[in-house]
Amino acid sequence: MSSACARGEKNAVATVASADGRGALAGAVTAEESARFSAMNPKQVFGEVMGELAERDGGLSVVVSDYGRRLNLDHMREVLPEGFVQCGIAEQNQVEVAAALANEGLTTFAPSYATFITGRVYDQVRVNLGMMRSPVALVGVSAGCESGMLGASHMALEDVSLMRGVPNMEVFCPADNAELASVLRLLAAAPRPAYVRTNTLDGANLHPDGTTAAVGRAQRVFSPEGAPEVSLVATGTICSRAVEAARLLAADGVAAEVLEMLTVKPLDVAAVDALAAGGRRLVATVEEHSVVGGLGTAVAERLLEHGGAPALLRLGMPDAYQNADSQAALLERAGLTAAGIAARVRERLRG
């Protein structure tokens, strides 16, 4: 038996034997963990969870393309050195190797810059994860504008659009580090083709009581007093700014709720259907991604099937390559601050 197959059998045992009360392989994150993760950045959280999984899962593999030394993987490599695979600066090869290991039964994660692990490797993802359904979790690091100082080549503003276009792929955009940890644990417990989008923004903890990632389920993370007239539907870390925008709107007498979409694919169609039938004056989507092809497009597609749906405002990055600048400056120019989001909503309501 090959070492990969042997590790795969060990992985199966670890998954079945995971009922240890901590829920580590079932996706649950406790309130205590949520507070601890909120003090980290997503790269640190990724490494911490991989180290935790390595202690339980002898079939864990983390396949990297040069970027691994920045992902807090020292503990994982100490516990399970054979589980760390370095491919060098070769993301296409990274996906091929990750797919091969996953097909042998290993629990496989493949992290890299979000723009490279989606755009540079699109054909490999389409064939291996889409057509062949190789159960690899791609992890996009520094998504959106986080690497904006490195220029347009390093900004991942089309990644959600690319990944939601691949059949059999799930697309996760965690709103904070607790949710990121929950998603990673979930995908370790039940591997399948998936893309997990991560970035650092405001460091908000939207899940102080803990969380368990739920595929295709929206969460209401802010509720106004009284019935909402506006629904802000947000995905990813920009969700914290949508919550602040809702508070600003409340101060102006506009009742706005915030729904967080952890998964852009599968979309929570029941939640969108409820918005279409709920008498809202406006639905506004908020994302640190191009306004083309991401959450706004997914929500628009669903609303259009209903006819007579509320007005839709899509807030995101413009359909253009951006000049190098800081994440803060790029988002401010795009109107993706709390004040900018609230202003666009007020303008649309007046119009």
TrEMBL record:
Gene3D superfamilies: 3.40.50.920, 3.40.50.970. CDD domains: TPP_PYR_DXS_TK_like. Residues 40-206 form the Transketolase-like pyrimidine-binding domain. InterPro entries: PDH/Transketolase, THDP-binding, Transketo_C/PFOR_II, Transketolase-like_Pyr-bd, Transketolase_C. It comes from the Bacteria. One of its GO terms (molecular function) is magnesium ion binding. This is Transketolase. It comes from Parafannyhessea umbonata.
